[in-house]
Amino acid sequence: MPTPNEEPAVKTPIALMMLALAALASPPACARQAPLVDLQVQDLDLGHTLPWHPHRGRHYVEGRPGHRYSLVLHNTTGERVLAVVSVDGVNAISGETAGTGQSGYVLGPWQRLEVRGWRKNLSEVAQFHFTALPDSYAARTGRPGNVGVIGVAVFRERQAPAYPSYPAPIARQESRGSGKPGHASDAAAPSAESSRMDQGLARQQVGTGHGERRWDAATTTRFERASRWPAQTLQLHYDGTEALLARGVLPRRWPHYRDAPEAFPIGFAPDP
Questions:
Q1: Distance, CA of 226 to CA of 77 (rounded, Å)
Q2: pLDDT in tens, 159-190
Q3: 107 — phi, psi (to 5°)?
Q4: What's the pLDDT score for residue 202?
């Protein structure tokens, strides 16, 4: 397993990467155009997948403090891919401030992989759970600046050339959007004005904590990246209910959401 002092994979073409043994393989549903990897967030306490809410060029999920969650990655291709996972700007395997050239999870063809926490060793993870920002793992390690975002950088595997080999044009298929939410090129980056408006309406309230340890077996494998740059980048934001309501991400429900009691709420006199 790579040591903390080992050069990142972006400088070392062949590096040891993590491959979860407990992941389940599943066949493709149908032949269709798709991103390399799909991402879902599973609330483990509610037992369902959190819906994505589009807002000003970003996508959000609602995180409930105290609830454990996992990231479900699905390789939609018939080849191995490498997924470098970042939570709150921190690499989910090494705990380093995240960069795309770091260690990640290798997914086999059509494989589904559930990432349930910060990896502590080859047999355990510290579970992800939504918590107040000051209690988040990133904030507790002095890195609160990127709390509230989940990222996945996906790399194709370098293929051995067939012989005889001939020069081929450079493929540019990854430069286009996938047509699905979460792909880096699907939505325009939010403007500076909208970012300032978001900050003015509500500051980040919820982050990801370093929870209890649980068994989660993994091993190492060799993976050579086809390129120094990701073929696909996913970015998904999250926060608590109050903050998402204040930003306008979540619709206000009836009865109206209120921060404090009101002197004249709408209503009628009941029978005695």
A1: 15
A2: 877 665 444 343 333 333 333 443 333 333 34
A3: -105, 130
A4: 63
Give dist(CA 22, CA 112) in Å, integer.
Answer: 10
pLDDT digits (tens, 9 = 90+) for 101-154: 999 999 999 999 999 999 999 999 999 999 999 999 999 999 999 999 999 999
Domain layout of the chain by residue ranges = 14-160+174-247
Angle at 205 between CA 200 and CA 210, to 5 degrees: 150
Cα–Cα distances in angstroms (integers) from residue 225 to residues 55, 80, 81, 195, in the given order: 33, 10, 9, 34
User: For the whole model, what pTM was predicted?
Assistant: 0.70
What distance in Å separates the CA atoms of residue 133 and residue 147, rounded to the nearest whole number? 7
User: Of 255 and 107, which is predicted with more confidence?
Assistant: 107
User: Which residues, other chains included, contact 212 with Cβ-Cβ below 8 Å and sequence gap of 6+?
Assistant: 126, 127
